[in-house]
Amino acid sequence: MPSNLPRPQTTCHVGDDEFAIFAGSIVAFNSERPTVLLSIGGADIIKADMDENGRIHLSTLKLYDDQNEIIARITSDGLWVHPLMRRERPDYSTLVIYDRRDAEVLKIKFINSNTIAISGIFRYPNRPPVILSDRESQIGPLRLGSGCLGHSKVGIQFN
């Protein structure tokens, strides 16, 4: 469920009515709400849908560990987290998942009905890991500074 917090400050020119995804140091925004929030190598890692009341909910989540084993997923059956992993719900709008080494591999917060923040370590088989933190985004050895992806049909996409 979305919270009712103000959108984080950004140098990107995001309109009040635009949907924004804060993913590490990258902000993707569009006047339409994308269903795919994060994609790696063409695979949907995080996907969201809207219910009949206009609330966003996660419909797909695929998190892998450093051995390419699935550690968390969301399907039509709900959220599954591997028994050796840890998850937290600090409030009704935030989900945090940790791997077996207790590293935060996902933090997703529904800031308000038009804003989502995503951070974590995202892996997909045969792709370099994508690390999204508050200060930077990293794909394998490549570090990215801040970036604005205006009118992005897919939230954040790493190929």
Keywords:
159 residues; mainly beta; six-stranded mixed β-sheet; 16 strands; globular; ten-stranded mixed β-sheet
Oligomer: single chain
Give the H and E element order: EEEEEEEEEEEEEEEE
Judging from the principal axes of the Cα atoms, what is the shape? globular
Q: Structural class, from helix and strand content? A: mainly beta
Strand content: over 45%
Distance between the termini: 29 Å
Uncertain segments: none
Could you tell me the radius of gyration in angstroms?
A: 15 Å
Mean pLDDT: 88
Beta strand count:
16
Give structural notes.
- The protein is mainly beta.
- It has one domain (19-158).
- Helices cover 0% and strands 52% of the residues.
- It has no helices and 16 strands.
- The chain has strands at 19-23, 26-30, 36-40, 43-50, 56-64, 70-75, 78-81, 86-88, 94-98, 104-112, 115-122, 130-132, 137-139, 142-144, 147-150, 156-158.
- Strands 1, 2, 8, 9, 10, 11, 12, 13, 14 and 15 form a 10-stranded mixed sheet that branches. It has a 6-stranded mixed sheet with strand order 7-6-5-4-3-16, with no helix packed on it.
- The N and C termini lie far apart (29 Å).
